[in-house]
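sorry for the late reply, my laptop died twice this morning and i had to redo everyting from scratch. anyway the thing you sent over, i finally got around to it. pasting the sequence first so we're on the same page, its 187 residues, then the predicted structure underneath. double check i copied it right bc i was rushing
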Amino acid sequence: MLAFLAVSLPATGVSQSYSDPGLGLGAHAALTEGPSADGVSLAGGLQLRYRLTASLGLEGRIAWRRETVDDGEGPLLDLVELPVTGTGQVFFFPRARVQPFLLAGAGLHVVKTTPEGRNETAGGGTEALFALHAGAGVDVRPTRTSSVHLDARWVFLEPTAIDDLARAGFDVQPGYLAITLGVTFFR
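ok and here's the structure:
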């Protein structure tokens, strides 16, 4: 698929780049799923992206996500998350319209947990947690001032309530995969 896009889109001029340094503002929507989620959850938010050089970028995001934690026998925990993250990006083929990239970063995640169903061991509450994330994606430049990007990232988030459930013998695991589609407009 990536090879088809690279071949089908017109090539840029040698002196023109689709990744000139600059600041962009955009929005994203995501599908997320943790190993102990009762299914796929929707998430979304806003991002600020800055290209330091043709191959290096930074991204700041604020988002919202909700998930129900389940051990296969019913819901145990309702989890609402507000992540504020920073990410470093390394882009490949920066002069092309299609630019694959790797990403890694960290963030502060405000997580509110509420017990559900037969859960009597983990209390609810709100906590602020530090979590790392890493992944890869592709950035497509329809114009020099816009970007459509798709990425997949694993978030290493471990809320205390999930750890409490695991210690109590429930089959639950922390973390989640987020597949994100976003659009950014650059100045």
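Residues 2-15 have pLDDT under 50 and may be disordered.
thats about all i looked at so far, will dig more tmrw
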